[in-house]
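Please predict the structure of the following assembly.
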Amino acid sequence: MAVVEVENVSKTFGSGELAVQALKPCSFVVQEGELAALIGPSGSGKSTLLLSISLILEPTAGRIVINGQKVYDDGWTGVDERAFRRRNIGFIFQQHNLIPFLTAQENVALAMQLNGANRRDAGRRARELLGYLEIAHRADSLPANLSGGEQQRVAIGRALANEPPLILADEPTAALDTERGGKVMALLRRIARERRSAVITVTHDHRMIEGFDTVYQLEDGRLTRMLSPA
Amino acid sequence: MDLALKDIRRHLGKFIATIAGVAMLLAIVLVMNGIYQGNVADGVWLIDNTRADLWVVERARGGPFNESSRIPSDAWKSVAATPGVARASPLVIYGGQRDIGGRSQQLTFIGYDVFGGLGGPGRIVQGRSIEAPHYEMVADGKLGLALGDVVSFGTHAYTVVGLTQGAVDSGGSPLIYLSLPDSQEVQFQQDNRALVAARAANLNRLERAGYGAEQAARLLPLLSSTGDSVNAVLVRLAPGADGAAVARHVRDWLYFNVFTTDEERSLMLEGKLSKMSAVLGLFRTLLVIVAIVIIALIVYVLTIEKIRSIATLKLIGAPNWVIVRLILEQSLALTLASFALAYGLRALIAPNFPRTLAFVAQDTAITFAVMLVGGVVASLMAIWHALRTPPQLALGG
């Protein structure tokens, strides 16, 4: 089943002679359980595409369907973007972006509580999720007391908190060494396989490309090549 | 999950320091409330304690508190003879600065008819009122005197026969009660050398005017100044008497000015105390504004420090009210904790404060309400900034 369907989505900044087409019409589909990569140099349109799929940046034209719900069809379809993100999209960031005054468990539980879970249930499920990510022993630690790899695991836990069908990861291994980056990639693969989430990862990190099911390359705003490493 | 309290726990030192600073400012505001109400209470008490219905003062004057008023000592007899007057008695009141108990002290003398006259001491906590025509005094405890102490004013010594507590004028200066002639003597007594010099000057003036030595010697006592005046006459009306008619009679026939006790209170509140009220009001307003600005700056700085967290919250789908609540709660927590600490500080300061402090619940409630609204206003700038923060700020390195 297709989790993300992007069809002829383009984005132009400015108008007239000053217009810059950051994203030329591009189309792709990511299925459930698929681990996809978006690679490309700076300014190639990766972030524009990621922000469009995140319902943050409005494209100029095209159509976006996420988890069967049309969110953009030459204009936003009127979905409540934050409520939609809470239920359907998990985010993983390069700098982890954990809330510094919450413990690891609270960071994960917060996402659940924002989606309506009660405090006790969210706390229990957060601890279970940290166990799944093999970091339950650091559940009561503040982010400042966790290593980079541990922080990234907690961030992954927060992304998985509401069991979203889509996970968007922005350079998740950029701040980690090769060994820890490899572990994070293995974890993302495991999540895609076991939880059937579609994972789209924006990365510069060519060390990690081999682990993806599909690789899309963006260059000058055009989705020019599609690699499918065996 | 209460994000605000969890963030406060992380920045506890910063919060405590801010609360301590703001609380000290607010404590000053609360004490200023008490100073103003204390002055009003003291000033009004002095008027009420006389238990007079009318105050007769010098014509065209607003005395005796707001303006000097001098009327002849025996004018009270004319007033007493006015139809509708049950009792009239003279009153002397003036400020002084005297050495008492080894230190120079500001005080107010009150002279009254000690044999049944109006305007005698109230709030006597030890001893008795004045019973002798001379050389007895009742003093307020703030002067540091004890019963039986003897104090010299000029050429005579006065024994403390009674002590009051809280008997002060509108400026907070303690009162000393003397018999009427004693108070006049203390007020008008002159140094012997000054008397000799004045006498010589008058003699010289008479001789230059052509009077012989014998004539001049006879006229000399008539030219010397006397202390034969009082500042007001207090009037108690007869039962059923028309106060307005009595006042009209005194104005028209005796050529004095007359105020009812309510008018005298208004003169005190609108005259002497209104400027103090304005000054205190200005300072209170400035201090409250400074306190709110400090809270606003701290809340804004704390918000800027966690702007990336706020962007992350937006990105993971937190509704705006979660972010507004985070900031607003911190602002209100700072405000409420500061006010509570200020309230405690006020309780510590009050017993040792050198002036009367009268705390009125309404003043405290108004200050609290102003600070509560101020706390909300203080968070608006930070809320505005947070709500404008784009969620994509959370993305990227």
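The first strand of chain A starts at residue 2 and ends at 13. Chain A touches chain B through 35 residues (CB under 8 Å).
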